[in-house]
Amino acid sequence: MLDANIRKILMQVRDKAADEGIQATLKLHHEKSHLMRIGNNSVSLNTSENLVRLDIEVTDGRKQGSQTYLGAINDADTVQGIFDAAREKARMASPKTYDPIPDKVEVTINEDSQFDHELADIDPGIKAEAYREIIERLGEKYNYSGSWSSGSMEVYILTTANRNEVCHRGTDQLFTVVLKHTQAKWELTHNQTGWRASDFSVEKTINALSELISVYEENDGFKVEPGEYTVIFGASALSEIIAMAMYTGLSGRGWEEKQSWTAKFKPGDKILGENISVVDDPTNPKTFMFGFDMCGRKRDIFPLIADGEFMNLMYDSATAGKYGKKPTGHDTESPSIVMDTGFGHADPLEAVIDMGRVLYIPAIHYMNIPNRSKGIFTGSSRFNAVLVEDGKIVSPIFSSRVTDSFQNVLGNVKVISSVAESVNESNTYGRRAPVAMSVPSYIVSEGVKITDSADSF
Amino acid sequence: MTESMEVKKKISSNISRIASEGAGYVDARYYLDDSSETLLLYDGDLEANDTTVESGIGVRVLWEGAWGFAATSDPSCLDACFEKAAMNARTASRLVKVPLSMGAGEAVKGSYATPVEVDPFSVSLQDKLTFLTRLDNDLKEDFILKRMVYVNFQRKKVHFQNSEGSEINKDLVNVFGMIMAMALDSDGEMQRRSMSLYSTGDGTAGWEMVTNPELFSGHAARVRSELAELIKAEPLEYGKRSVILLPGQGHLQVHETIGHPLELDRILGYELSYAGGSFVDLDSFGKLRYGSDKLSVSSYGSIANSPGSFGFDDDGTPERAYRLIDRGILVNALTSRAMVNEANEKAGREVFQQSGGAARATSFYKAPIDRMTNINILPGNDGTEDDIIASTEDGIVVDNPVSWSIGSNREHFHFGCEIAWEVKNGEKTRVLRNPTYQGHTLEFYGSLSAVGDESTWKVELVNNCGKGEPNQVMQIGHGVPVVKFDDVITGERK
């Protein structure tokens, strides 16, 4: 767990600040990250980072300032210097028009139930060998690329409100391989996620891709003309849609400020189909479980949508302070969004056997929101997308654009898979922050709008 | 000897050591200071008052055609960091079908400093807040429900060394700014109008950009009045028409459908598992008609006050100015040394003569990848914005992105914008809300029918270009004039 010396230094600076009556939060983030990239059937980059970040936020009445430091933390003077910089920023800040809600570690938590030593210290050679095996077994005539990110992260938070401590240590990984036909240009992919080294298996990837290679090899691409279609959205596509729908619809700030597609609704209103239920569940093991948020608040199971009804809004601390609400534990980069499964067959092809022509879009590339007030999203099909007729895959489809509303797509769901799948949604633009959602392995939605398509994959 | 001098000395000895063990190439980037300050006034409340300070070392080792990289934020772990990078490279070399090579390189010695009149980090927080609060007050009006004033200042002091004897020092400063106002339209839906700090291509890149009324601080009244029109406007109806892009939107069009598809690592397939590929291949150069004769695009690293200017890239290559597209024909790409060598070898001919100086890493703990610099559409001969409007029978003028969604090989796209002005028979007639347009890249640029002159050319500054694994956010510039495209699908089908 956390280096004892750093812990001692942080507590020492906290105690001094508390004695002086200063309101402050100290957050330490330590990551050991490894990533192997594959390009053109070779390892194109093999990278390791060992980084320690310290965020200190000081609140001086209605004034706030924060300082983040990424560098060596070996002594109390360094931490005190960062603290003093944050304090000075707060002193010089202009006051807010509302009272900020002070951070407070509500209860001491020390969690590492999703930490795996084997994954934390994985030998990069294992990754290279796995890619080698996949390439050799699926055929070297294809072009392979991919990435395999793994690592550990620790978060440690103290506030001057009390001497409680929260500490989280976890591991996570995301494996991706892309197989591309060099002439026909089609691309297939497979991902694996989890927090244990043993969550990964070469066989899973070989099996998943083998099934599709023959479909792509033996059939030309199908151009989907704009119109309305019955669409199977796979777990990756579904997780994007749900994540975007929740972010743009159920964040407290968006709703309070009338920017969200739910702005005209209130809790209790029916906003999605009655077979849709979504919860933020930090106890779900298919997600990366964080028992507290970055303000030190305990995170509990939090219903968002129940049987299509709008249940709750997610309030971060700043929004709650501004609009006189209670924070809901959503000052977090790692929510645990879980969509309930349904009763559909485990195999999506079985589920659509009586539905005639259906598009199967497993993943949506580059989703964005052209109209947040109406909840309209757009994005295009990419990997593994196929045309299905009477429950049989008949051909791959060219890149096709879906532009539709959350309310239409999630309001006309005819089948929901009975199998839950974990989808890794981690964002590594800044610090390592593992995020996974648990969603049904597919949904079948009717009347989905395809608005454009290309003549290529 | 200062601590930084000692670190530099250790870097030299480690580079020599790893190279003597058989590495094909070694480099290190030592970030003495990588600071970023963000201030955000939201409805006048100071919601962000944050400074981030980073320092550390990133090491790259090329071993038998494979890259290893390691980074540490603790200079006392420097030797171990070099060892880790070398070990990572050796491991990577176990799976090499296409060996990477940096080619023959010469020692480059030099330095670059962004021209700055007033260092934004030397301006007191109080002075900054006084100025920004005045800007926020300029945005106030009864119908406006939300206001936002944002600035971000960046300073990077970087020391680069490599095994070819190169030694480069860079002192970079970037400044970004944005104002935005929001209000409810007649349907009770939120509309927004914003303006981002831009450059004319000349001048300096300090606090003086923020206080310059033309570049940033003098636009609040325009933003207010355009928002007032927008909330009373009708939505744009679906249909084919001409689309005139102002630089606020045109820069993103260039970014997404010219810049990204012309990154050579992307063309070679190194981004497939994340960002995607490119419809361009190595046979396209010198042959592919990317757009009409009116389309000429440059990669130009020497715009003084743009974040796309940095003197030397992270391979040590001095910045270059060259054409990517010449009168509609694709002629070059955004390139780094290793990618140029691989492309030429793969093609069996010299597709690219030299690196374009586009290897960039966003911080010490990320490895360089092929990036945009300043990617610009060159000004044309079709006059001013008014001239272009006057020559348009049926169209819309659009500005500033709301959303952008691009096909995985950059072959098609969909954009949503903040505002549109309808154009009928050569005149702007009314404002329209919720404008969107979509198209297929080559067809779209083939329909380019007017390119504005220098009076319409602005350098838009981009602070959030995401690419790579691990993900990197990069800063870029785009100089673009007003441009017109014909027969574009606009609005959404019913």
Could you please describe the fold and organization of this structure?
The complex is a heterodimer of chains A (457) and B (494). Chain A has helices at 4-19, 76-92, 117-120, 124-138, 202-218, 235-249, 252-256, 317-323, 348-351, 406-409; strands at residues 23-39, 42-60, 63-70, 109-111, 143-159, 165-180, 187-194, 227-234, 278-280, 302-306, 309-310, 337-339, 357-361, 364-371, 376-381, 386-389, 392-396, 400-405, 413-416, 420-424, 436-440, 442-453. Chain A has 2 domains: 4-218, PmbA/TldD fold; 227-453, no CATH class. Chain A is 23% helix and 37% strand. Chain A has 457 residues and is of the alpha+beta class. In chain A, α1 runs parallel beside α2 and α4 (124-138) packs parallel to α5 (202-218). In chain A, a hairpin with a 5-residue loop joins β5 and β6 (165-180). With 494 residues, chain B is of the alpha+beta class. In chain B, strands 1, 2, 3, 4, 5, 6 and 7 form a 7-stranded mixed sheet that branches. A 5-stranded mixed barrel of chain B has the order 10-17-18-20-24. In chain B, β12 (321-326) and β13 (329-330) form a beta hairpin. In chain B, α3 (125-139) runs parallel beside α6 (220-230). Chain B is globular and about 70 Å long. The interface between A and B is large, with 95 and 93 residues. β3 of chain A pairs parallel with β2 of chain B, so a sheet runs across the interface.
Outline the biggest β-sheet of chain B: 7 strands, mixed
Helix content of chain A: 10-25%
Distance between the termini of chain B: 71 Å
Overall number of strands of chain B: 24
Strand tally of chain A: 22
Largest interface, counted with CB-CB under 8 A?
A-B, 95 and 93 residues
Domains of chain B, number: 2
- Note poorly predicted spans of chain A: none
Helix count from the secondary structure assignment of chain A: 10
What is the residue-averaged pLDDT of chain A? 96
**Broad structural category of chain B:** alpha+beta
* Class from helix and strand fractions of chain A: alpha+beta
Average pLDDT taken over every residue of chain B = 96
Radius of gyration of chain A, in Å, reads 24 Å
Oligomer status: heterodimer
Q: What proportion strand of chain A?
A: 35-45%
* Percent of residues in beta strands of chain B: 35-45%
| N-C termini distance of chain A | 47 Å
